[in-house]
Write a structure and sequence with these properties.
heterodimer, A: about 120 residues, mainly beta, four-stranded antiparallel beta sheet, about 0% helix, globular, B: about 110 residues, six-stranded mixed beta sheet, five-stranded antiparallel beta sheet, 11 strands
Chain lengths: ~120, ~110
């Protein structure tokens, strides 16, 4: 149980395009999902907390208009990187918390974004 | 001061030895603590969670929590080369959803 998927696993795009990443909890409902970014050799950086049916809470320094988050259902959250630039190239990872079974976050496999 | 601090390592141990990974946290109100393992190029995977003072054992892994000292550790017994990875310590504040992650400790188990 507690499986989280992400799609796509790899994205290569041109500068200026928008990229959507999906995060799904496959076998449980997740009221809360989290989006992280990780640059090479660095630790996870929390970008935002996504709550089903409400606006996401962004961490300081993360542009909410650039990183659009939509948590439309209890099993799906999406992150859209708008007008992507090379500096947005990173490893984006989502996690989901299983309601009613403690506070543990389960991570998706991540999405590698390369902006040319 | 960072919420969660870990020795970045690298930590090297011979195969079969005990690997000891340490973590301190600054929010005394934190109640939940987690250890994740992250292989290079992969996302973190949960190893253990611990909520109460003392030891919690799961197979070759033992998590230890000392709230008075604000200290969490992870012991890996009979270390295997497949244990070579970065280990992330995380705490959850009492009044928040998010986790605070340490920067991770890189462990190498030498065959």
């Amino acid at each position: 149980g507690a499986v989280v998927s992400q799609h796509p696993s790899w994205v290569i795009c041109k500068s200026g395009t928008s990229v959507k990443i999906e995060c799904r909890s496959l076998d449980f409902q997740a009221t809360t999902m989290f989006w992280y970014r990780q640059f090479p050799k660095q630790s996870l950086m929390l970008m935002a907390t996504s709550n089903e049916g409400s606006k996401a809470t962004y961490e300081q320094g993360v542009e909410k208009d650039k990183f659009l988050i939509n948590h439309a259902s209890l099993t799906l959250s999406t992150l859209t990187v708008t007008s992507a630039h090379p500096e947005d190239s990173s490893f984006y990872i989502c996690s989901a918390r299983e309601e009613g079974l403690g506070e543990t976050q389960y991570f998706g496999p991540g999405t590698r974004l390369l902006v040319l | 001061q960072k919420e969660v601090e870990q020795n970045s390592g690298p930590l090297s141990v011979p195969e079969g030895a005990i690997a000891s990974l340490n973590c301190t946290y600054s929010d005394r109100g934190s109640q939940s603590f987690f250890w994740y393992r992250q292989y290079s190029g992969k996302s973190p995977e949960l190893i253990m969670s611990i909520y109460s003072n003392g030891d919690k054992e799961d197979g070759r892994f033992t998590a230890q929590l000392n709230k008075a000292s604000q200290y969490v550790s992870l012991l890996i017994r009979d270390s295997q080369p497949s244990d070579s990875a970065t280990y992330l310590c995380a705490s959850q504040p009492a009044n928040g959803n998010q986790f605070y992650f340490g920067t991770g400790t890189s462990l190498t188990v030498i065959p």
